[in-house]
Design a protein that fits this description.
Helix content of chain B: 10-25%
Largest sheet of chain A: 7 strands, mixed
CATH architecture of chain B: 2-Layer Sandwich
Oligomer: heterodimer
CATH topology of chain B: Alpha-Beta Plaits
Strand order of the largest sheet of chain B: 4-5-2-1-7-8
Strand content of chain A: 25-35%
Largest sheet of chain B: 6 strands, mixed
Number of strands of chain B: 9
Shape of chain B: globular
Distance between the termini of chain B: 48 Å
Strand order of the largest sheet of chain A: 4-7-2-1-13-17-15
CATH class of chain B: Alpha Beta
């Protein structure tokens, strides 16, 4: 009896597991969070959606002699959640560079085979203790409540700090507190960093790009609770929105660029600068110089001993950053946008960036605002700034730091030019993702980098026809996707654990969206849904599910198969024409004889017909639309577009019959490389040899020579 | 052309945080033809390769500059870092640079067509970038083998017939 039960049970188990649905078109419900009052199944914010608010009043002093930041802040934190909060968490991001930081401890590596000085220096510095140790990290000097009795103690946990509230902060209540601190500014060129200083040795001058410079509130929300992922250096930031009032005290000969509106321009700018700025506000075609190169070169020759305080106010931003230097040239122009206010595009750069920067930076900023606002929402902030910072590209609200320097003689190559325009567009574009459409970068890099890289591609193509974009077109992701699967993570992988970061979190999602737009959904449906996502989640905190759901809900296209394949697996596209069977009129001779005249007319038998069965094989795993191009014997062509749903019953192999009026000479699958098919050698009937890169090169080189040269005469 | 400030470059090259330009992937394609000819294609991200060569040799090159010295530096660097057993007469053929920063270097060679087993060593850029990965495809007829080289995986033996 017992034996029988065991046998029966095992049959049952076997049967259940044997029936598990692995169809690539099954819905994504097992992957996405259950919809609720905060986030709906349509992908829109729910009727009880909430988000927290943090307002800051900050006084910060930049000490150019000691390269040090000293700050004081008053934070007002408003609990809009329905939950009483027993503690508050802040981020102390500078601690990533503190002595004993986990970032260094968890750094992996092997002993290099190279025995040169560089390698030794790197090894000692990276893994040793006491070699070139930088005294980084926040030095907190005061953490005190202003709201009476809110808290008496706090706990620093590496890159985060908990305020231990005496009693829970009730829904709707707020708490106010003061923090004071200082930190040493890192030399970006020496130890890296998203912000820091660059030292110009020959003239003993500094260019500061300052960010993560104050203790910032963590996000508390319905998805993560409080953020609990430490800052290890790669997964970037998650920040609540708020209003900022910031006073920046810097040497009086510095020009300061920052998030927000400058509130005291009469105190910090000259009358000439103010009148030039006013002119820039009415100039839409070309940047107007507010500080000229000649003026900047004069200013950087000396050093002021006095200071000036610049006051900036910013509303509804998730962060604040600034740049300061006596080396800055400054230009600006106004940008008109459809359905929104005029905004300012500005650039700050040292002479080392010129003439490249005066020619392209502000224009690239303006183009970014125009393109992005067309596909998302009108740019809601008063300005967007591009600051020249050697070697990096890094984004903050209204301001970003971008590389691109000229040779000493002022020349620059096309490579440097396009590299610089590319980085400016990318970083300015981040104003939308994640600064306005405020996703959690600590969890998901692709949500800002991927979406941003997709729009960056459209912007580049609008800036200049045939712009040499690095990412976007389907064929550019092929090399990555056909790689060894053991080394490819799905896009839906946490920011800290991604392999091949650039390809995974920038290139692949950007390309996936571009293919979705051009090859799967069509531009109209895609653009409407993408814009809807931006409108719904502007000034809110979206999750991947909110994006996936909105794109489907607003377009009427079930994309679960696409998200599952492209975002949750590391499958690739490789679809092959496996077999072609041909029939024509004479194959049906016998049957045709049996027809009467009415039937013959109905079947249009006075015309020729040719019937083709094509067997398609899905080798790579991703199901995709079939783009089948027939070339007829008379040389004309016709394209059949078959939606991906052709794979809905069998995911690995499908057969399809085509009835043609003309005899087909050849068949090509995806002839214009629009699906990221990784092996196009199996895309042709009859089989066609596709020249490899090196074969094409050999041909090109051969064509440069005459036949007599080729045969050596 | 000696590097003045190697330390600074080294550090910048090895910074682990991610901004716009994390690529760190190269693609090597080895095409074994039935007639004994071999085509070798190396695809790099141009600025990654320049940085690696500068750090290793102290010589700063621009891969978009057409001169013989650059050709010879590229040839030497690749031959130092890439090896496949059974190949003879490996000849540098040329290079192609595109403004999207993709960069190709081509070699041709000969091999003994009776061989099916190859030892492959690929250490291109691995010492410069911790996250570097060199995807290597070996093709013969309809057979394709893909290998992935990383810092801790620099040698493979591959049988093209298996």
């Amino acid at each position: 009896m017992n034996k029988l039960i065991v046998i029966l049970l095992s049959i049952l188990v076997f049967k259940v597991s044997g029936q598990e649905n692995v169809n690539k078109f099954r819905q994504l419900k097992d992957k996405l969070a259950t919809p609720n009052v905060y986030r709906t199944a349509s992908g829109a914010p729910g009727h009880q959606y909430y988000q927290q608010q943090a307002n800051y009043e900050i006084d910060v002093v930049l000490d150019d002699n000691r390269q040090k930041i000293t700050g004081k802040e008053v934070v007002t934190y408003i609990n809009n959640s329905p939950d009483p909060l027993e503690y508050l968490w802040l981020q102390l991001d500078q601690n990533v560079r503190a002595k004993g930081s986990d970032t260094k401890k968890v750094k992996t590596g092997q002993i290099s085979k190279n025995k040169d000085l560089n390698t030794l220096y790197y090894t000692l510095k990276t893994f040793g203790e006491g070699y070139y140790e930088f005294d980084g990290g926040f030095k907190l000097t005061k953490v005190k409540t202003i709201t009476p009795n809110a808290f008496d103690s706090f706990t620093v946990n590496k890159t985060m700090m908990r305020l231990n509230l005496n009693k829970p902060l009730a829904p709707g209540d707020s708490v106010k507190f003061r923090i004071e601190w200082y930190y040493n500014i890192n030399d970006r060129m020496e130890i890296g960093g998203r912000s820091g200083l660059e030292y110009f040795r020959e003239e003993d001058n500094y260019l500061y790009t300052i960010a993560q410079f104050y203790p910032r509130m963590c996000v508390y929300n319905d998805v993560e609770g409080w953020q609990n992922k430490q800052f290890l250096g790669r997964g970037e930031f998650a920040l609540p929105f708020g209003n900022f009032k910031v006073n920046i005290t810097a040497p009086s000969d510095h020009i300061v660029a920052a998030t927000g509106d400058l509130k005291n321009q009469k105190e910090v700018l000259t009358k000439t600068q103010i009148s030039r700025l006013e002119k820039a506000k009415k100039t839409y075609d070309n940047p107007v110089l507010i500080v000229t190169q000649k003026e900047a070169e004069e200013i950087e020759k000396t050093k002021a001993t006095t200071t000036k305080t610049w006051t900036f106010h910013a509303a509804n931003v998730r962060d604040f950053a600034f740049a300061s230097s006596r080396k800055f040239i400054w230009d600006a122009m106004a940008v008109k946008q459809d359905g929104g206010d005029d905004v300012m595009a500005m650039s700050y750069y040292p002479k080392e960036g010129n003439p490249l920067w005066e020619e392209h930076s502000t224009r690239a900023v303006a183009q970014t605002l125009r393109t992005y606002s067309k596909y998302t929402i009108p740019y809601p902030y008063p300005k967007a700034i591009s600051v020249n910072a050697k070697q990096i590209g890094m984004e903050y609200p209204m301001i970003c730091f971008n590389y691109g320097r000229c040779e000493n003689d002022g020349t620059y190559s096309d490579r440097v030019k396009y590299g610089m325009i590319t980085v400016v567009i990318h970083e300015v574009g981040h104003n939308y993702f994640p600064m306005i459409i405020n996703s959690d970068e600590r969890q998901w890099t692709w949500m800002d980098e991927g979406l941003n890289t997709y729009l960056q591609y459209l912007t580049e193509q609008e800036y200049q026809e045939d712009y040499p974009s690095r990412r976007g077109p389907a064929h550019k992701i092929v090399d990555y996707m056909k790689g060894d699967k053991k080394m490819i993570s799905p896009i839906m992988t946490n920011s800290e654990s991604i392999w091949q970061f650039g390809n995974n979190a920038y290139g692949k999602p950007a390309t996936a969206l571009n293919i979705l737009r051009e090859t799967v959904m069509g531009k109209e449906l895609f653009d409407y849904a993408f814009k809807k996502y931006a409108q719904r989640w502007a000034f809110k905190h979206p999750t991947p599910a909110d994006f996936f759901r909105t794109m489907e809900d607003a377009s009427g296209v079930d994309l679960d198969w696409y998200w599952r394949g492209w975002f949750y697996t590391n499958d690739h596209v490789d679809i092959a024409i496996k077999k072609v069977i041909e029939k024509d009129k004479k194959d049906y001779k016998k049957a045709l004889k049996e027809l009467n005249d009415v039937q013959k007319k109905a079947l249009k038998l006075d015309e020729d017909f040719f019937i083709y069965q094509i067997d398609f094989e899905n080798i790579g795993g991703l199901v995709m639309p079939l783009i089948v191009e027939f070339t007829y014997e008379d040389g004309t062509k016709k394209t059949h577009y078959i939606p991906a749903e052709i794979w809905k019953l069998t995911n690995d192999e499908v057969s399809k019959v085509f009835v043609e009026k003309k005899k087909v000479k050849s068949i090509a699958l995806d002839p214009y490389l629009e699906t990221a098919d990784t092996d196009i050698s199996n895309n042709y009937y009859p089989k066609k040899v596709v020249p490899t890169k090196i074969e094409a090169y050999k041909l090109k080189e051969a064509q440069k020579k005459s036949v007599l040269e080729r045969v050596g005469k | 052309m000696l590097l003045k400030n190697a330390y600074i470059l080294l550090v910048a090259a090895l910074s682990s945080f991610s901004l716009l330009h994390e690529y760190y992937v190269s693609i090597t394609t080895i095409q074994l033809h039935q007639n004994g000819a071999v085509d070798l294609t190396f695809k790099f991200v141009a600025h990654d390769l320049e940085k690696a060569i500068e750090l290793e040799t102290g010589v700063a090159i621009q891969v978009d500059e057409q001169d013989q010295l650059t050709d010879s530096i590229l040839e030497t660097y690749i031959k130092n870092h890439f090896e496949i057993s059974g190949l003879e007469e490996a000849n540098y053929l040329g290079r192609e640079f595109n403004l999207d920063e993709t960069f190709y270097v081509y070699f041709t060679a000969r091999y003994d067509t009776t061989l099916s087993k190859f030892n492959v060593r690929n250490t291109l850029l691995l010492q410069t970038f911790e996250a570097q990965e060199n995807i290597t495809h070996i093709n013969k007829g309809t057979t394709q083998k893909s290998l992935s080289f990383k810092r801790n995986l620099t040698n493979y033996t591959v049988n093209i017939n298996e």
